[in-house]
Amino acid sequence: MKSVIVYYSYTGNTRKVAEILAEYLESKAETTLIALKTLDESDKFLSQALRAFIHTRARLEPTDFNLSNYDLICFGSPVWAFAPAPAINTYIDRCFGINQKPVVLFTTYGSGVGNQRCLDYMQSLLIQKGVSSFKRFSIQQFKTQDKEFILSQIRSYNIDLKS
Questions:
Q1: Which pLDDT value is given to residue 111?
Q2: Residue 41 confidence (pLDDT)
Protein backbone atom coordinates (compact mmCIF):
# COMPACT_ATOMS: atom_id res chain seq x y z
CA MET A 1 0.00 0.00 0.00
CA LYS A 2 1.24 3.46 -0.94
CA SER A 3 0.01 6.98 -0.25
CA VAL A 4 0.99 10.37 -1.61
CA ILE A 5 0.49 13.86 -0.22
CA VAL A 6 0.64 16.65 -2.80
CA TYR A 7 0.63 20.08 -1.20
CA TYR A 8 1.48 23.73 -1.67
CA SER A 9 2.63 25.86 1.24
CA TYR A 10 3.66 29.51 1.08
CA THR A 11 4.14 30.24 4.80
CA GLY A 12 4.81 26.72 6.06
CA ASN A 13 1.41 26.07 7.68
CA THR A 14 0.20 23.62 5.04
CA ARG A 15 3.64 21.98 4.95
CA LYS A 16 3.45 21.33 8.69
CA VAL A 17 0.03 19.65 8.37
CA ALA A 18 1.25 17.63 5.37
CA GLU A 19 4.26 16.41 7.35
CA ILE A 20 2.10 15.34 10.31
CA LEU A 21 -0.32 13.56 7.96
CA ALA A 22 2.67 11.86 6.28
CA GLU A 23 4.02 10.72 9.63
CA TYR A 24 0.60 9.30 10.52
CA LEU A 25 0.19 7.49 7.18
CA GLU A 26 3.81 6.27 7.17
CA SER A 27 3.01 4.07 10.14
CA LYS A 28 0.57 2.21 7.87
CA ALA A 29 2.26 2.31 4.46
CA GLU A 30 4.92 3.93 2.33
CA THR A 31 4.11 7.63 2.00
CA THR A 32 5.49 10.16 -0.48
CA LEU A 33 5.38 13.94 -0.02
CA ILE A 34 5.28 16.16 -3.11
CA ALA A 35 5.84 19.82 -2.27
CA LEU A 36 4.79 22.01 -5.19
CA LYS A 37 7.02 24.92 -6.14
CA THR A 38 5.91 27.70 -8.46
CA LEU A 39 7.87 29.63 -11.06
CA ASP A 40 5.52 32.60 -11.34
CA GLU A 41 4.40 33.53 -7.84
CA SER A 42 4.05 37.09 -6.64
CA ASP A 43 5.43 38.16 -3.27
CA LYS A 44 2.46 40.48 -2.85
CA PHE A 45 -0.48 39.16 -0.83
CA LEU A 46 -3.13 40.98 -2.87
CA SER A 47 -1.73 39.58 -6.13
CA GLN A 48 -1.76 36.07 -4.69
CA ALA A 49 -5.32 36.49 -3.40
CA LEU A 50 -6.56 37.79 -6.75
CA ARG A 51 -4.94 34.93 -8.65
CA ALA A 52 -6.55 32.41 -6.29
CA PHE A 53 -9.95 34.12 -6.39
CA ILE A 54 -10.14 33.94 -10.19
CA HIS A 55 -8.81 30.34 -10.15
CA THR A 56 -5.60 31.14 -11.98
CA ARG A 57 -3.19 28.33 -12.72
CA ALA A 58 0.50 28.53 -11.84
CA ARG A 59 3.63 27.51 -13.64
CA LEU A 60 5.17 24.70 -11.60
CA GLU A 61 8.70 23.44 -11.29
CA PRO A 62 8.95 19.98 -12.87
CA THR A 63 7.12 17.35 -10.83
CA ASP A 64 5.50 13.96 -11.28
CA PHE A 65 1.82 14.13 -12.26
CA ASN A 66 1.32 10.34 -12.50
CA LEU A 67 -0.47 9.15 -9.36
CA SER A 68 -1.44 5.70 -10.63
CA ASN A 69 0.95 3.89 -8.27
CA TYR A 70 -0.72 5.24 -5.13
CA ASP A 71 -3.62 3.74 -3.19
CA LEU A 72 -4.50 6.96 -1.30
CA ILE A 73 -4.03 10.46 -2.68
CA CYS A 74 -4.02 13.59 -0.49
CA PHE A 75 -4.09 17.22 -1.65
CA GLY A 76 -3.33 20.14 0.67
CA SER A 77 -3.62 23.87 0.10
CA PRO A 78 -3.89 27.10 2.01
CA VAL A 79 -7.17 28.95 1.52
CA TRP A 80 -6.56 32.18 -0.37
CA ALA A 81 -9.56 34.39 -1.17
CA PHE A 82 -12.05 31.51 -0.85
CA ALA A 83 -9.97 29.28 -3.14
CA PRO A 84 -6.99 26.93 -3.28
CA ALA A 85 -3.57 28.28 -4.20
CA PRO A 86 -2.98 28.38 -7.99
CA ALA A 87 -0.29 25.68 -7.68
CA ILE A 88 -2.86 23.13 -6.47
CA ASN A 89 -5.26 24.09 -9.28
CA THR A 90 -2.52 23.41 -11.82
CA TYR A 91 -1.51 20.12 -10.25
CA ILE A 92 -5.08 18.84 -10.10
CA ASP A 93 -5.58 19.83 -13.75
CA ARG A 94 -2.49 17.92 -14.87
CA CYS A 95 -2.45 14.87 -12.60
CA PHE A 96 -3.63 11.51 -13.84
CA GLY A 97 -4.07 7.96 -12.55
CA ILE A 98 -6.57 8.99 -9.85
CA ASN A 99 -9.80 7.61 -11.26
CA GLN A 100 -11.77 5.71 -8.58
CA LYS A 101 -9.11 6.22 -5.91
CA PRO A 102 -9.83 7.60 -2.44
CA VAL A 103 -8.78 11.21 -1.96
CA VAL A 104 -8.19 13.30 1.14
CA LEU A 105 -8.46 17.07 0.81
CA PHE A 106 -7.09 19.34 3.50
CA THR A 107 -6.71 23.05 3.91
CA THR A 108 -5.11 25.52 6.26
CA TYR A 109 -6.90 28.80 6.77
CA GLY A 110 -6.95 32.05 8.72
CA SER A 111 -10.46 33.27 9.40
CA GLY A 112 -12.41 30.32 8.03
CA VAL A 113 -14.36 32.47 5.59
CA GLY A 114 -14.28 30.63 2.30
CA ASN A 115 -12.79 27.41 3.62
CA GLN A 116 -15.72 25.20 2.57
CA ARG A 117 -15.85 26.93 -0.81
CA CYS A 118 -12.17 26.13 -1.31
CA LEU A 119 -12.67 22.45 -0.44
CA ASP A 120 -15.77 22.28 -2.64
CA TYR A 121 -13.84 23.74 -5.59
CA MET A 122 -10.98 21.22 -5.27
CA GLN A 123 -13.51 18.40 -4.92
CA SER A 124 -15.41 19.53 -8.04
CA LEU A 125 -12.18 19.47 -10.09
CA LEU A 126 -11.44 15.95 -8.87
CA ILE A 127 -14.96 14.67 -9.52
CA GLN A 128 -14.41 15.64 -13.16
CA LYS A 129 -11.39 13.31 -13.10
CA GLY A 130 -13.41 10.34 -11.87
CA VAL A 131 -12.76 10.56 -8.12
CA SER A 132 -15.81 9.64 -6.05
CA SER A 133 -14.48 8.94 -2.53
CA PHE A 134 -13.48 11.96 -0.44
CA LYS A 135 -12.49 12.78 3.11
CA ARG A 136 -11.85 16.42 4.03
CA PHE A 137 -10.43 18.30 6.97
CA SER A 138 -9.17 21.78 7.74
CA ILE A 139 -6.78 23.26 10.26
CA GLN A 140 -6.85 26.90 11.32
CA GLN A 141 -3.43 28.54 11.03
CA PHE A 142 -2.97 29.06 14.77
CA LYS A 143 -3.44 25.29 15.28
CA THR A 144 -0.85 24.20 12.69
CA GLN A 145 1.85 23.89 15.35
CA ASP A 146 -0.33 21.68 17.54
CA LYS A 147 0.56 18.16 16.43
CA GLU A 148 -1.88 16.44 18.78
CA PHE A 149 -4.77 18.58 17.56
CA ILE A 150 -3.93 17.81 13.91
CA LEU A 151 -3.65 14.09 14.68
CA SER A 152 -7.03 14.22 16.45
CA GLN A 153 -8.57 15.71 13.29
CA ILE A 154 -6.97 13.05 11.09
CA ARG A 155 -8.25 10.30 13.39
CA SER A 156 -11.73 11.82 13.70
CA TYR A 157 -12.16 11.68 9.93
CA ASN A 158 -10.89 8.08 9.81
CA ILE A 159 -8.16 8.98 7.36
CA ASP A 160 -6.27 5.86 6.40
CA LEU A 161 -5.43 3.82 3.35
CA LYS A 162 -8.96 2.45 3.24
CA SER A 163 -10.43 5.93 2.86
A1: 82
A2: 73
pLDDT tens figures, 101-122: 999 999 999 987 789 999 999 9
Q: State which residues form the domain around 8.
A: 2-156
Cα 135 off chain centre by: 12
- Residues sharing a CB contact under 8 Å with residue 152, sequence separation 6 or more, in sequence order: none
Higher-confidence residue: 13 or 112?
13
Q: One-letter amino acid identity for 140?
A: Q
CATH number of the structural domain spanning residue 119? 3.40.50.360
List alpha helices for the chain, DSSP H: 13-26, 45-53, 86-94, 115-127, 147-156
- The one-letter code for the residue type at 12 is G
Tens of pLDDT, residues 82-93: 899 999 999 999
Q: Give the span between the Cα atoms of 159 and 8, in whole angstroms.
A: 20
Domain assignment present for 80: yes
- Within-domain flag for 107: yes
The tally of domains found in the chain comes to: 1
